[in-house]
Amino acid sequence: MKLAMNYLIKNEADIILDNIKVHSQLGADCFVIIDNGSTDGTRELLDSVKDQYEMIVIDRPLLDYQQSNWKTEMAKTAARKLGADWSIANDADEFWIPKDGNLKTEMVSSGSILECPRYNILFDREAFDAEAPYYTQTNRVQYPINYPKGIQCAQPNLSIMMGNIHGKVAVRSRGLLRVKGGNHRAWHALGWLNSKKSENIEIYHYPIRSKEKFIQNIENRKALLDAGVSKMGDHYRRWVAMYQDGSIEAELDRLTVTEKSRDTLFGLGVLVDDRSAMDVISNLLEETAE
Fold this sequence. Notes:
Elements: E1 3-9, H1 16-26, E2 30-35, H2 42-49, E3 55-59, H3 67-82, E4 86-90, E5 94-98, E6 113-116, E7 118-122, H4 125-129, E8 139-141, E9 168-172, E10 176-179, E11 186-188, H5 191-194, E12 196-197, E13 201-205, H6 211-226, H7 234-245, H8 248-255, H9 259-267, E14 271-273, H10 276-289
Parallel strand pairs: 1-2, 1-4, 2-3, 6-12, 7-13
Antiparallel strand pairs: 4-9, 5-13, 6-9, 7-8, 8-14, 10-11
Helix pairs in contact: 1-10, 6-7
């Protein structure tokens, strides 16, 4: 069984090679990547490792961000050109960590869609300011705050990182119809019959890794909004508005774990100390560096 991991990326130079290295050792056999016009050296980094992995890189520097179309295209390219039996549409800041075996343990030939839970990992504020490696952070959102929908842009005191986030899916190539925009869902000819929830894979999400990267992401989202892109999460719209009105620094305290908030969040069980991803990522990166 052959597993493809596919990425739609822009300006992920700080993490993309880590992501590829780790998942190649956890069961990903090949990679299809769409680069959406990176300017930070991401594209050059991909060129530097293209001979080390079975990889197809597609340049798509368009300012229209067709998530669903492009992720579906990558899955079908992986099947047609690389012979992938299953595909994962991944983001550079997400690490799929199996508890046992590897990523392919539950991806059987009779399957269709494998649903995997996803958790945000928050930086300690001091570690964030000191630019500590993302994988050293172990503050996992165990019980997210169930904020009502549609209030992210109106309520400045919310913590986007502690809200509920959707899981992601792996999809079998045969019968695949469409990967939905954020890869939270997919359409498959047999999805109604034999999709299942994973008991082995958990996804660790590291979206806020440095102030520089965070601001860069907001500027990219602003450019997309200015270009007329309408399908975008409210949290991105919130951050663009805060960036424009100068309140983004205060938002960083809500996106990290401060000394003031730590005891409360852990005491209520909203956060737990989870070292699983840290151990796996750091060990695998250490192995590849030897």
